[in-house]
Automatic annotation (TrEMBL):
DNA repair enzyme that has both DNA N-glycosylase activity and AP-lyase activity. The DNA N-glycosylase activity releases various damaged pyrimidines from DNA by cleaving the N-glycosidic bond, leaving an AP (apurinic/apyrimidinic) site. The AP-lyase activity cleaves the phosphodiester bond 3' to the AP site by a beta-elimination, leaving a 3'-terminal unsaturated sugar and a product with a terminal 5'-phosphate. Its EC number is 4.2.99.18. It is an enzyme of class 4 (lyase). InterPro entries: DNA_glycosylase (IPR011257), Endonuclease-III-like_CS2 (IPR004036), Endonuclease3_FeS-loop_motif (IPR003651), Endouclease-III_FeS-bd_BS (IPR004035), HhH-GPD_domain (IPR003265), HhH_base_excis_C (IPR023170), HhH_motif (IPR000445), Nth (IPR005759). Coiled coil: none annotated. This is Endonuclease III. GO terms for molecular function: 4 iron, 4 sulfur cluster binding; class I DNA-(apurinic or apyrimidinic site) endonuclease activity; DNA binding; DNA N-glycosylase activity; metal ion binding.
């Protein structure tokens, strides 16, 4: 199977079986989404969604958040991973948005990356979710799943993964493909024991066809009755 054929199969399968896919983070506007994505780094969406309501009640706008003190904000995100850094990032992000962008969350990757706590992945998430811009955010799920299936080849960094995916995914499908791959990695193609028996992508999956099928064949051979060579 060629790389293009593999991409075509995967995209077609997702379009048929997962026609709608979106972030599992809960938000009502770009400000809330940005806060949630910053908090989600190395943390589950479930934990973030349990945490953000209290933050948004106390700081409903970026202007309010820009005036928060560390001591006031920190207790609200204590249960999130790396709460010290994320508290500083959120306050710094809000201050810069107010000072440099007139209180409006910027909508380009370059501008978003000038904000504290916002790297390329976060900027890609914001722009693809808010405006459906063709930007591919690469987190651990996207990095792992893309390599397993064979969508990427010898990609050593998130940027290499991003560029390889963008080469084959049609521009108008990039924003949803990001969610397809993330959710697939979160629930089916999990890190330690991928659920290949539940996966509809196995016909095109490089890992399944080069690793799993061989292991199944070996297990089947071992299970066969031993036949003696003696007459």
């Amino acid at each position: 199977m060629t790389k293009k054929e593999r991409f075509d199969f995967v995209i077609s399968w997702f379009e048929q079986h997962v026609p709608e896919a979106e972030t599992e983070l809960l938000y009502d506007n770009p400000y809330e989404l940005l806060v949630a994505v910053i908090l989600s780094a190395q943390c589950t969406d479930k934990r973030v969604n349990m945490t953000t309501p209290a933050i948004f009640r106390r700081y409903p706008t970026v202007e309010k958040l820009s005036k928060a003190s560390f001591d006031d904000l920190f207790p609200l995100i204590r249960s999130i991973s790396y709460p010290n850094n994320k508290t500083k990032h959120l306050i710094g992000m809000a201050e810069k948005v107010v000072q440099d962008f007139h209180g409006e969350i910027p909508h380009t990757v370059a501008e978003l990356m000038t904000l504290p706590g916002v790297g390329r992945k976060t900027a890609n998430v914001i722009t693809s979710v808010v405006d459906k811009q063709p930007n591919m955010a690469v987190d651990t799920h996207v990095f792992r799943v893309s390599a397993r299936i064979g969508l990427t080849t010898h990609a050593k960094t998130p940027l290499q993964t991003e560029l390889q995916l963008l080469k084959y995914i049609p521009e108008e499908k990039v924003h949803i493909a990001h969610h397809w791959i993330i959710l697939h990695g979160r629930y089916i193609c999990v890190a330690r024991s991928p659920k290949c028996g539940e996966c509809g992508l196995t016909p095109a999956c490089k890992y399944y066809n080069t690793v799993v099928k061989k292991e199944v064949a070996k297990t089947s051979l071992r299970a066969l009755p031993h036949q003696s060579t003696k007459k």
